[in-house]
Amino acid sequence: MSHTGNKFNRETKAMIKPIQFRVNRYIFRPTLMGIVITLICIPLFIKFGLWQYNKAQQKLAIQTAYNHAKVDEAIQFPLNHIKNQQLDIDDWKFKKVAVTGVYDTKYQFLLDNQVEGKRVGFHVITPLKIDHTSRYVLINRGWVLGKDTHTDLPIFNTPVGTQTIIGQIWVPSKKIFTLEAEPMAVNSGKSNSEPWKMVWQNMDIDKYKQLVPFTVSDMAIKLDQNSEAGGFVRNWQVPAERITTHIGYAYQWFGFAFATLLIFIYMSFTKDRHEIKPEINAK
Fold this sequence. Notes:
Layout: H1 2-16, E1 21-23, E2 26-28, H2 32-71, E3 75-76, E4 96-103, E5 109-116, E6 119-130, E7 135-145, E8 162-170, E9 199-200, H3 205-211, E10 215-216, E11 220-223, H4 243-268, E12 269-271, H5 273-282
Helix pairs in contact: 2-4
């Protein structure tokens, strides 16, 4: 084993030696450890920097779409995806849409732990039966204040009759972590089905679709601030925040990569002792 190790060291030194060169009284003589660390750290730091930069660009694109949606004219809510036809949902994010239908309060719920002005409350999520179809879409009607005792649910009204909904497409994330037990489906046909759960910890459309006895869209709608279709507080947060923070992190990682290169160069230069000795002997 020692013979093999010595052979490896000799071969490694032989590979490093050709890249040595002199600059005045200094010799560039990198160590194997320095080369390995540099070759690992610089690509890694650049990768992290690009990751943060790409996140900033993605959020910038979201911000642009969000701003356009606020001034664009509302377009008709697409029903194709509910009919299992091909539709790229990502292309519809934050678009302003219009849809007409009737609220169904039986399967509405409250989305817990929603903060507005440092006060904790709920978002009211109500399904809307779309006119002339048997299909539904979930409407986020806005924020309501919770009571002092969290188990006491707020009282709110839901308008009856046909409503014209105008709002922005909302595609809730499917990356959900929860410790809640899975409730029994309402449409399971079993006599011991549990009552409808009014408070939800997460906006989980996939779970909602399993629990209700109707077809519901994968896309929800956040009710427009100017809509009078039974809305509450609707100070919707801009979805693409911290753009400058991501840019700052990107530059920081790129700086680490550049600093690593400078440190490697600095540590690889040593004074040529043969140039120093004659000066000492001359004295």
